[in-house]
Amino acid sequence: xxxxxxxRPGRPALPEWVRRLPEYLMIWVPLLLSAAHLVSFSxxxxxxxxxxxxxxxxxxxxxxxxxxxxxxxxxxxxxxxNLLLFGSAFVVLSAATGLVLAILLDQRIRGENVLxxxxxxxxxxxxxxxxxxxxxxxxxxxxIQKLVHDLGWTSxxxxxxxxxxxxxxxxxxxxxWQSSGFAMALFLAGLRSVDADIIKAAQIDxxxxxxxxxxxxxxxxxxxxxxVVVIQLQFAxxxxxxxxxxxxxxxxIATQLPALVVYDLMFQRSLLGRGAAAAVxxxxxxxxxxxxxxxxxxxxRRRALHA
Amino acid sequence: xxxxxxxxxxxxxxxLEVLKDIALDIESGEFTVLVGPSGCGKSTLLNIVAGLDRPxxxxxxxxxxxVNDVPPKDRDIAMVFQxxxxxxxxxxxxxxxxxxxxxxxxxxxxxxxxxxxxxxxQIETLLGRKPSQLSGGQxxxxxxxxxxxRDPLLFLFDEPLSNLDAKLRVEMRMEIKRLHQRxxxxxxxxxxxxxxxxxxxxxIAVMHQGCVQQFADPDTVxxxxxxxFVARFMGSPPMNTLPARLESENDGLVVVIGAGRPDEIRxxxxxxxxxxxFVGRDVVFGIRPECIAEGSRAFSNDAPVxxxxxxxxxxxxxxxxxxxxxxxxxxxxxxxxxxxxxxPGASASFALDTRRICLFDPKTERLIV
Lengths: 307, 369
Prior knowledge:
Largest interface: A-B, 18 and 27 residues
CATH class of the largest domain in chain B: Alpha Beta
CATH topology of the largest domain in chain B: Rossmann fold
Low-confidence stretches of chain B: none
CATH topology of chain A: MetI-like fold
Oligomer: heterodimer
Number of helices of chain B: 8
Radius of gyration of chain A: 26 Å
CATH superfamily of chain A: MetI-like
CATH class of chain A: Mainly Alpha
């Protein structure tokens, strides 16, 4: 482009920085704005977490007292245990459901496009809607249990929503319904990228469909699996609206999750300092997932460059 | 024993007939090359032989057994693909043993077979690597190793050299041929490259529009192409095919190119009596570029057949000089000595080898004689 400008007679070429101004504006302004928000508010939250702030932010230094208080609270302990259970169950089951759906869709079946849209559709629904709908479906007096009772099977019992031990699984179910379509889409793309000749070669080698999937296709999917797991884990850690709409942390505090604890501390009990400490703890959990992932991506890219 | 017999085989996709009434008998130990332009059906035919695709009609016998309803793994075949189709998540060793693993071959036997094949193909040092860590030529070897280790009745090669660069392709071509001579395997090899077909095959099946045009040894295909398609497909540059007329003169046959023109060319034919019924009719005159040479070349002990022809263009290649010229006004290519450079635009004298002329029927496009 600079050559074209230089040889055009009679018009002085614009200086480099003027010509590139649109690019700078497009890239740097949004980047700086969002980075400033993210970084400044994160730093602000971290600072608050070390202050004795309650209803309004105040300066002062209390060291790690907010953290020890949060970590010692039963609310947080339950939330953390729930997060471990919910996070692992949700990630494993939604990836597995997505993979099974993708493998079934990959059998060149009729109506694939329609089915794919149906499976992906829940992703377009807000978590609040998902939570509300599932809270009706799982409500023993309104939903599935009542339907089965009305059909005549009166001894049928499906009351996980109000069962202290099982309520967390209702969140797992709703979250899987919402996001296994996303896992399916990624896995399906991976399945479709396997070279058809490789499958033919395996057929000639005498491998049955199960062995072809187990030894050849699935091993080639593991980079996609890691991506799916990391994205779902991020979602699991920051889950808020789904639980808020489905169980609101109940019965009691049986389905408490860290994000609900933060909300509870900050806006219902007006303990800004402790809420900030809980938020920082959430950030640390998130980093525990994202930092290894970033490192893995870096190593992968290095290896690809040197291959 | 026929290693592979294909009878009355056809393949139809909806209204599109991609293979029409194919019949081929391939003897044990033969290196058969299926050659043709893309879309001629050669790869479809190979896939049907492998059992990866089903024929619409006809039978396939491998080793005397009808295999139409036999799955690929039980056909006693091995296949090498254009994309190599190596299993990306397995090492070279696992790639080679995968088939044996599926057939539950004992471990010790697997190890011995791998060692054997690795030595034959000189890939011993690569056994622990993944396909992504191999070069194109190495992947090609591994793909062949995977086929060889099976020791099948029939090897199927689907354009295995197309993804290699020109130099490597020539090397691998020789290597595959050497391998065939050493182990005496029966090979069906698909390619669009007529040079691969000529250099490697013991018999060539030239395919076009879903039909086998000619099935013969390379010399016959080259010397006596069954029809104009084969004449124009085989050879680089291909056979010159010029419209001409056959006449009778002093009890002999004369072929006239550019009849009625001031520069018409009349060539006496000897030993072409089979074409006598075409006297007074149009024919297609076919002559290979190497049968047109500089005027000083003697093709035989007889008096040389010389013509003067205007030269259009000269392409020196180092080993020879390619000349495009006009015979009786029709364009033709000649292959002359490298140190002779006729002047474009001027006329030069050329010697013709009239013993190796082909005459074709312009209506049926078939070889007359």
